[in-house]
Each structure stands twice: as C-alpha cells, then as structure tokens.
Amino acid sequence: MSTWSNALNFKKIPLTAQDNLPDLALVNLDDWGLVTLIGDDKKSYLQGQVTCDVVSLPADASTLGAHCDAKGKMRTIFRLFNHNNGYGFLQRKSVMASQLPELKKYAVFSKVDIEASDDVLLGLTGESAQAVVDQLFTGEGDVRVIKAGTAVKIDEDRWLLAVTAEQAETVVNAIVEAYNDVRLSDSTLWDLYDIQYAIPRIDAATELEFIPQAMNLQAVDGISFKKGCYTGQETVARAKYRGINKRAMYIVSGEAAQCPQAGDALERNIGENWRKGGTLIASYQYADNLAVALVVLPNDLDSGTRFRLAAQPEFIWTKQDLPYTLEDE
C-alpha cells in the first residue's frame, strides 16, 4: 500500500477574499475518483453513453461531459482524457458507487473493461503550474503521457496529474524538492478554482437532479448536438431546440458562519418573502468568513435579486458574473 502522503501536510490554505492565490500549489484530490475504460470498443461504447463527442476527441485534449439517465438527468459530470492506452474519466468520488455500475451496465455486450482506478490524483495550481509541467514532464499539448500516468491541463491555472500509487511519492517529492515555494493544499483550493471558472460538478447530493443545461454544460463544451444518440439525448436536445430548460448555474457570494455543502438550499427574496431559489453545487469559505459558491437558479431572475442560505438566513448573498456567456451561438 502506498504511503506517499503520510509525511506531507495537505491542509486548507488560509486565504482571505483579498489574498492572491498561491503562485504554485500541489493539491491532494482525494475526494475525486477516476474511472478507466480499456478495450477495442471503448470509444464506440462511451460515445453511446455520454453527452460529449468521444469519437472526435484528440489524443492531446480533454473534454467535459455528462452521463445521464434515460430522462436526461445527470448521474455525473466528468472530464474525459486519453489515459494508459484507454480513457480516464474523472468525477467526484461521492458518485462512484452509484454511477459506475450504470456506466458498466451494457459493457458485457462490448469489448470494453470499465473499472475504478486506484491512481493517485494530484493538482498543480497557480500561475507557475504550466512552467512546472513543462520543466518536469516532456511532451506537448493539453494531455501528456508522463511516467506511470497522465498530465491533463484543466485551465490556464491548473493541471491534473493521474499517476500510479507506486509512483505518486516520486512525483510529489520531485515537485516539493525542486520548488521550495510550493504550497501544499487539500482539495478545497481546487474547489475555489472550479467556482471561479464556473466548472460544474455532480456530487451524491445532486445526482439525478438536473439536466446538463441547468449546469451550463453547453457553455463549457460538454455537450455535442451533432453526435449520434446517447442515453438522455432526447431531453438534452429538447432543452436546446424547444427552450424547455428554465435553470442555469451561477456564482454567488456572501458571508457564512460555516461553509455550505452540496445540496444545500439557497432562498431568494420575493417582495417581503423568501422562497426556495436554488441548490448549492460547490462552495468555498475564505478565512474571513466570506464564501463563494456555484448554485443552480432559475435563469430569469432579476439582476438585483438577493439570496440567503436556508440554514443561515442572517447573511445576504448576491449573484456574481460568470466567466463565460450562456447565450446560444
């Protein structure tokens, strides 16, 4: 059994809302899971299961996507990339037990092996993350084969490293020894980046609650409207072409006594009353008690609408700008 993390202190970095994010941080992504798909039919099988276009995915790129039920409700949101002669399928660990059996349900009819991986998942974040990857790992592109694993570019400030448990200690020590100023963080720092970039996710508390467009998956290139059929495709297509979707995911911020959790209710102000307004998807609380979150809300709210956490009604929250547009092309 690997003991790579025993001697290292991955904990939440105490940041206030005014602080700059660390120039370089190594993040232990122990609440994320990886599924691997290997075999001759891996591409065609997955193409018929998920919202993204697996067939056209380049070897040096990754894509977001969703796996839905027959009604178009999402079991998970994942990041897909080429990994170890197959695919890696990154998702929240909290949905692994329920989602993986559904993904494997029809695999008996295809030449594909689908399993939960025991790879160690690490994040490199900050303005220096790209330079570190370029120095330590050879190759080009946004997905790179590295010793005993894969490096995947997430955005301009982040890389994911998926490596075997046997090699994790070597990789971590190489980074820590080469860069004295690297900060060690638990996965809350990754949460903060996901919120700032408005990257959707599904946890157990929100599984099978939303269609892909309710979490902006079309705005982050996680849905192909040109590929063939897949599970839930009829609902996803109707949401686009008939305008049946009435929700979207937004960034909200406000004070909090403690960090809210996925699935928590956000209320909206209507006149003198408060009503259920949305559902928390991900959140982060700064050291000065300001918190930021991703939340699914009605997509026709007035810009000045006020919000509050149902469990913490003493604090008022407001909606912030998204880093991308929700307008259809």
UniProtKB/TrEMBL annotation:
Entry's Gene Ontology cellular component terms: cytoplasm
A single MF term (Gene Ontology): folic acid binding
Protein keywords: Cytoplasm, Folate-binding, tRNA processing
Any one Pfam family match given in the protein's UniProt record, by short name: YgfZ_barrel
Principal location listed in the UniProt entry: cytoplasm
Location(s), subcellular: Cytoplasm
Single GO biological process annotation from the record: iron-sulfur cluster assembly
Domain tRNA-modifying protein YgfZ-like beta-barrel span(s) in chain numbering: 245-310
Annotated residues for binding of folate: W32, W190
Family (UniProt): Belongs to the tRNA-modifying YgfZ family.
Physiological role: Folate-binding protein involved in regulating the level of ATP-DnaA and in the modification of some tRNAs. It is probably a key factor in regulatory networks that act via tRNA modification, such as initiation of chromosomal replication.
Protein name, per record: tRNA-modifying protein YgfZ
